[in-house]
Each structure stands twice: as C-alpha cells, then as structure tokens.
Amino acid sequence: MKRFSNDGDGSSKAYVACDVESQSVVAVNYTILTRSTNGIPISPRTEKSLPGGGWTDKLLAPLRSLMGTRAYDPWRYFMSVKRREVNERRSSSSSSSRFFSTSIPAEFDARLRWPNCPTIGEIFEQGSCASCWAVVPTDVMSDRICIHSGGRHVVRLSAGNLLACCRLCGKGCKGGFPGGAWMYWKKQGIVTGASYSSDYGCQKYQFFPCYQPRIEGSPKTKCPKTENTLLQCQKTCRASYARSYKQDLYYGESVYRIPNDVRAIQLEILEHGPVQANLRIYEDFLYYKSGVYQHKSGKGLEYHAVKLFGWGTDEKGTPYWLAANPWSKRWGNGGFFKILRGSNHAEIEDHIMAGIPKLAPTNVDDHELNLI
C-alpha cells in the first residue's frame, strides 16, 4: 500500500487505515519499545522524544490498514459547493444577511442539541477493514435523516451496503473516496443496517469489531484477515426483514462540500447536523487519550474520515472541534476526540462534506434502532 504519491498535478494520494488488528499489533510493539510523556513517544535508551524517523517501516506497516480515505477524491469535484460566506463577504450590504446575523455559540454539541437522534453519539466500529470512507458518511447520513425528519425516522444506513455496492468509490477495504459515497447516496440510495452482531435493518456490516488495545496481562487477540471477497453486492435484504431492498432505500436530496471556513462549517453543523471531514493522521494521533489534539511528534501517515459534531474552547482558551473516530470505543476518549479548531490543523477543515436527505414517501415507517 502506498503512503503518499504525487501524480504531477500537485495532489498527493493516500489511503487511511481503518483496520483494528493493525493498531493492536503496533500498540503492543510500541509499548515494548517506548514510553511517552504528555503523549509524545520517548525512546527508552536515549530518553529523547522520537522523531518521525524513530518509527520503523516494520512498525508502521500494519497501521496503514487503520486508515482508508484517499487524499485526492475526484468525486468531490462533482459535488456542489456552499459558497454563501464567500459571496456575502463580497457584498457591502451583507451585514444584515443570515450568515452574519446568525449567532454562533461558544460551545455546541449535536448530541445535546438533538437528543432524540442517538446515532450522533454512537461510535460505529469499522473493524479490520479500511472502510472509514463508507462508515463515516453513513454515520452522518443517519444523523441527518433523524434531524431533518424531526426525530420521526431514527435509522442507521448500512455502511456494509455502501462498501459492497459502490464500485466507483474506491477499493473496498483497501480505501476509498468519501465523495463517491455521498454521490452514491444521492444517485443509488442506501438501505439500513447496523453492526456485525446486530439484527437491525436490511443488510448488516460484514466485519467484526475486533479492535483490542493491548493491556498488560490481557490475552492477545487477533483480528480475522480481511478479504475483499466478503464484499459482494447484494440487492436483497436478509430473509427475516419485513421490507424489500427497494422499499428500504434512503436517498440524498443534495450532497455538497463546505469550503475551508470555520464559520461556514459551524453554521452547517448548527443548521443541518454533523459533517464528514478528512484528517491527515500523524503517529502521535494513535495515542490520543484526552485534551485537544495537536500534532507534535511523528511523521504523517495516511488520511482518515471522521465525523465533526460540535466545538468548544478548553480551560486554556484553545478552540477545538468535537469529533468521532470509527476505530473503536476503546480508542481515545470512548472513540471521541477534540482537535484544534481554526488553523486547518492536520487538514481537518479542508475536506468537509455533507448532504440533505430526501425523505421519500416509501420511508414512512419509523425504525426502531438498536445501537449494538
């Protein structure tokens, strides 16, 4: 798998690893080789922080299956762009516009704003598959279906359905394009479905949530080998499901990207719900536990899709985004993290995507969502 490549047009392409087993293996090895201070890796021999070169290729190789987003996403250029903040800034009469008159709260958490939409606070574990490009968009789509229906439709769209059936989205468990996922939702629709162990919906997710961070004294576990042969597109629902595949499809009314503008991103979340973002992963991000993440040590790895659902400022005055990472509930702060806001840190504000759901008449029945 390539780390970064340049195609001559100035754009780099990379995968973001989303595999669970690889992170577990690296965590074991890294615990043996190093310790850390304030989250920064420390060499046990030199007592100095490890630079990017301090990580061996052998150590990093399995990590790349934890990330699955390509840096260059051609499908995003087919999506409309919300440019209201740009147009209004050019107008001298824009002071009374909604964009500038809308009050942005100092703190916001979509989980509190829409408490009847439980998917907002869910961490859907992607397992040993680089599927963040599919898992995170379907997370956001599910949130927005609930929000835009006023809580009438509490559903989870099937990341497994998208992963198997979107042939133009990338390479399945070897990485993909989030932009393609949003376009597929609009054009083809996505059925419902939850985690590997759940009986909810039309099609469940194909991969077991096997992330197990290494804890001293705990038994060593290993994720099953991930094969793309598991990703066979089926246009039928499971036998015991009451609805047909066609009846279960949910579509997007519109899909778009938001420019790199903090206020525009905040307004989008305030008005319509969480958004999908792409994050460049650095080595020190792997060991995040709490606080506001700011890259300080280690080299850049791949790109990874995450969900932004709020913001705030910590006790030191540091502005941050609230985000969810589909690696596992056992990573970070229960699967959630904070990252520096306002400076495009780790490119977090560069590739924001979202959409508005089409609440079709075929989806009139409420779904009871089991978040297992």
Give the CA-CA distance, first to last residue: 32 Å
- What is the element string, with H for helices and E for strands? EEEHEEHEEHHEHHHHHEHEEEEEE
Q: Unreliable runs, pLDDT <50, ≥5 residues?
A: 1-66, 85-99, 213-219, 362-366
Continuous helix count? 10
Total number of strands? 15
Which secondary structure elements does this structure contain, and how are they paired or packed?
Elements: E1 5-6, E2 12-13, E3 17-18, H1 20-33, E4 35-37, E5 40-42, H2 57-60, E6 66-67, E7 80-81, H3 84-90, H4 98-101, E8 108-109, H5 110-113, H6 132-148, H7 159-165, H8 178-187, H9 245-248, E9 251-258, H10 262-272, E10 275-282, E11 292-293, E12 300-313, E13 319-324, E14 336-340, E15 352-358
Parallel strand pairs: 7-9, 11-14
Antiparallel strand pairs: 1-2, 3-6, 4-5, 8-12, 9-15, 10-12, 12-13, 13-14
Helix pairs in contact: 6-7, 6-8
Quick overview of this protein structure:
By secondary structure, the protein is of the alpha+beta class. 22% of the residues lie in helices and 18% in strands.
